[in-house]
Design a protein that fits this description.
Elements lengths: L1 H16 L6 E2 L10 E14 L8 E12 L4 E14 L1 E17 L2 E13 L8 E10 L3 E10 L9 E10 L1 H23 L1
Parallel strand pairs: 1-2
Antiparallel strand pairs: 2-3, 2-9, 3-4, 4-5, 5-6, 6-7, 7-8, 8-9
């Protein structure tokens, strides 16, 4: 988990030291002509198992990262993600995804983010698999998210886990607040699960 955060911090420092910093925004739609901005998304989704592996009941995830708009039609960046899902007990997974954003209209964006699941609480050895997330968002208000996770064979039963999660997403200040609340709830859930 330390390495993805270091990568994001190095990219952030690079952009801060460049001329792009003058066009920095806390989130994309906070002011006109925003070029460099934070990604602070929160998603609640319903997972659908596509394999014989473990089936999740509920999922919420946070994406925290940095984006840079190359022009008014395309942006690039990367984000760290944390997924929390219910399957018997609560489990977590995290990783990193590069992202390309396409802006077909000034109020709409389509994000495509392939990535690596670097850790999953069900996989004690670290790397757990691959993921692909696609989002369609209206400004920073609301969006629809589709995420496909393909996990390595489970070390306990050898079954492969493929999950499609379909959810509702928000970004900007709302996404940051909900992500913080979601992260803070993890120790509470762990305490409840242990009793």
């Amino acid at each position: 988990m330390k390495y993805p955060l270091k990568i994001i911090l190095v990219v952030l420092l690079f952009f801060i030291s460049s001329n792009s910093y003058s066009q920095f925004c806390w989130y994309k739609y906070s002011k006109e002509n925003c070029k460099l901005f934070l990604v602070t998304e929160f998603t609640v989704s319903k997972p659908i198992g596509l394999s014989d592996g473990i089936h999740r009941k509920f999922d919420h995830s946070s994406n925290i990262g940095l984006m840079y708009d190359l022009n008014d039609k395309i942006g690039v960046g990367a984000h760290f993600f944390l997924n929390v899902f219910r399957n018997g007990g609560w489990h977590t997974q995290h990783g990193i995804r590069p992202r390309i954003s396409i802006y077909p209209h000034s109020d709409w964006q389509v994000d495509i983010s392939p990535g690596l699941i670097l850790s999953d609480s069900s996989y004690p050895d670290g790397f757990a698999g691959y993921c692909l997330e696609t989002n369609v968002n209206y400004k920073d208000h609301i969006g629809i998210s589709f995420r496909l996770d393909k996990l390595e064979p489970n070390p306990f039963d050898g079954k492969e886990d493929v999950v499609l999660s379909i959810g509702i997403q928000t970004d900007g200040i709302k996404g940051a607040i909900l992500s913080a609340l979601g992260a803070l709830s993890i120790p509470v859930r762990d305490f409840i699960n242990s009793n």
